[in-house]
């Protein structure tokens, strides 16, 4: 009878099992969860990312503006030069703010000298223009290579913190004691790779646009020198 009572009581009670609570971290919590070392690394990476974005936007706009080549402008300048109206041709070049216009203007100002001197003047002007187009691209390339290494530096710092906690705990190691070091290691690695990938892609996009402008400059300079050779 006692067994039946105990069984009946046990059968009528429901066992409650606590379900694990899933905790999600926001991006800001993920960034700040790595401790002081992680914050320093993330701060450096954020500065590099801001610089990379600024360089990309500024250079993209400048190079796009430099690459706008009006074929009507080239034809008009060639017509003015062929007609002997050098002052009008020079004024037309000065009114257009592009590398091609500045190269041709330099060539027009040297008309009357040997063709070799004219070609050298145009070439030197072209080199200066290319340097202006490539301004800060080396810094962007440096960021694309340095950012992942800085992220890996954060990984090393995070692992050092984790092993330090393990050594300090002795035989009583808990997972939560290692969380700060692991967060530092993982978040800085992801951030460094992200900044490096974005910077690398931005660099290649800008280099391709610079090459396109350089090609236009070479074609325009060749056409101008052919015109002078025909007159000679």
Structural notes for this entry:
There is one protein chain. With 232 residues, the protein is mainly alpha-helical. It has one domain. Helices cover 82% and strands 0% of the residues. It has 9 helices and no strands. The protein has helices spanning 2-12, 27-32, 35-66, 71-82, 86-94, 99-109, 115-133, 137-169, 175-231. Helix 5 (86-94) packs antiparallel against helix 6 (99-109). The chain is rod-shaped and about 95 Å long.
Please supply descriptive tags for the structure shown above.
232 residues; single chain; mainly alpha; disordered N terminus; 82% helix
Strand content: under 5%
What ranges have pLDDT less than 50 throughout 5 or more consecutive residues?
1-17
Number of spatially distinct domains: 1
Shape call: rod-shaped
Query: What is the H/E order?
Result: HHHHHHHHH
Distance between the termini: 127 Å
Number of strand segments: 0
How much is the radius of gyration in Å?
A: 33 Å
Class per helix and strand makeup = mainly alpha
Tally of DSSP helical segments? 9
**Percentage of residues in helical conformation:** over 70%
Mean pLDDT: 79
Largest sheet: none
